[in-house]
Amino acid sequence: MDxxxxxxxxxxxxxxxxLKIVAAIIIFVIGKWIAKKLSILTKAMMxxxxxxxxxxxxxxxxxxxxxxxxxxxxxxxxxxINTTSFIAVFGAASLAIGxxxxxxxxxxxxxxxxxxFRPFKLGDFxxxxxxxxxxxDITLFSTIISPLDNRTIIVPNSAIIGxxxxxFSQKENRRVDLTFGIGYDDDLRLAKQTLIDxxxxxxxxxxxxxxxxxxxxxxxxxxxxxxxxxxKSADYWDVYFDTIEKVKLTFDEKGISIPxxxxxxxxxxxxx
Length: 272
Fold this sequence. Notes:
By secondary structure, the chain is of the alpha+beta class. The chain contains seven helices and eight strands; from the N terminus they run H-H-H-H-E-E-E-E-H-E-E-H-E-E-H.
């Protein structure tokens, strides 16, 4: 009797919930497959429309998890479970998690702004969030910047959005500004013409606008020239360092001195 009783009970539950369990599994499996396909299709359409790759991946993830959440709720509903309470619990949990992860969510929001407004892109040389270097990667939480010495700096996106962003690569051309000093006894006209000739002889220096050389200051121990030359952004640092070296070597050849700061001290003897 007891065996028959449990058997009948098992058959009753199987007949009552078996179909529901099978239906829930089918809904979950098919729904998950559809969610994955739709998210991939969304990313493909965004990439075809030339939307930023990072934004496309972010949208793909959002679409997938949103659809997956709907599939899970539909599966639970097929089992006969009241999903209203789950939605309430999920909402409360989301609020608690949001409060606990305010900083991280701020980085995500800043990352979305960076991706949408694109103040810089991969490969740009920027100064942002206290870091100076080339942008290697942009994620939702942080931006990876590599300085000239090939270190890796991971900057939170909120720090970038919250401060000034200087993009040295956004413009096609940049201006190289340098200052050189000569002694007061040196030939000023010769020094000026030497600087002009050096800039004009460099094929990387653009001639529109033309290089500019002028006396900028009569300093304490030197006459200072300011030089301005426009170059392609990619040539900036090469021209910067090469020009300094060429000026020193050429000034030495022509006998033009580059004085260092000095102070004349006069000692006065007191007569007894």
